[in-house]
Amino acid sequence: MKENSNNTNKRKVILFPGTVDRLFNEAKHLAETFHYKEANELFEQALLLGEGDELSLSVFAYSLYEVKNFERAKQICEELLAIGPSMYFEVMELYLTICMQLRQFKQVEKIIESLFDEELIPEHEVEKFERLKNLNAHIAENQESQLQSPPLADIEENFDIIASEFLKLSVQEQLMLINELPEMNIRPYITEIKAVIESENVHPFIQSLLLILLVEQEVNLDLNIAKFNMIREINPAELPLPTKMPQYEEIAAIITETLLQEPSTLEFVQQLMAKHAIVLYPFEWTIFRSEDVALSYIEFVKSMFGETVEINGEIVEFLQNIEKISDLQE
Q: Given phi > 0 = left and psi -120 to 50 = alpha, else beta, which region is 16?
């Protein structure tokens, strides 16, 4: 008697106990150690086999956001919001950020309005979300009224309007606005950008990102940069990018040579150092010797992995401070 072909095709996959949990745990670990691509692949595998808990889905959403897979990140956030997570407001903030990355400004405006109507916004966040709602309402209106304009016209006008109020925005709002700038000619707004960069109230990471835009477009301009108790006069047209700075290249070479037999640690150290270089830019680690900085990065990363190492307290404290700043948490 022939076996029914439908039954053959529908045989169930037998899983060992704990397989799904193990996949989710491995995926979370990968995301927490900045291996987002690999983490996302494991998360997708795990979700094919079972349902994710609130924590797993939250980490998955952030991991997708980090690799700019905004459409999928939005889907995961919607699944989370549908089950009413305990960290509802944090998930909603991520969801709104993703919608802005997708340029769904009208949707963001409507969601924030509903949050206000339902009194779901914490009192200390009201002013921030009021600004965010107005920002999205203005951009959405501009999108509708300038459909026949060149593709970047609405972005340029919005930046011109918002520039004077730029420093009043949250760091995340500033970052989202800056993300729109690389594809446009920023020269008409040099005065505003210079004022932001030279402001004593600007976040060091935001300051560096704006400076990098000027360097990439070879803007000939004198700037006075102050951060981390250091002051320097520079011209973006004559400045190398962060990873081409002299001490960066020197430290990177030492790290690469030291960790040739430890590729995973090397990759993590390189990512960390590149991120810190942006925060420090246009300065470097010049208050320390390059050899000491290279060794401290290696020790710092190994200590994060739970290894017992001898640590140069002064330099590692400096690196920890840079790492905290680079997280862009207010």
A: beta
Residue 143 pLDDT level (bands cut at 50, 70, 90) = low
- Under the banding of pLDDT at 50, 70 and 90, the label for residue 4 is very low
Rounded to whole angstroms, the Cα distance separating 132 from 330 reads: 16
Tokens of 326: 């680079």
Residue position matching structure tokens 């995926």 = 27
Beta carbons within 8 Å of 96's beta carbon, 6+ residues apart: 108, 111, 112, 132
What confidence tens digit (pLDDT) does each residue in 116-140 have? 898 888 888 888 788 778 777 777 7
The answer to whether 312 touches 289, Cβ cutoff 8 Å, is: no
Note the pLDDT of residue 326: 83
How many Cα atoms occupy the beta-carbon half-sphere of 192 within 13 Å? 17
Query: Which of 23-37, 86-100, 147-161, 250-264 is the least confident region?
Result: 147-161
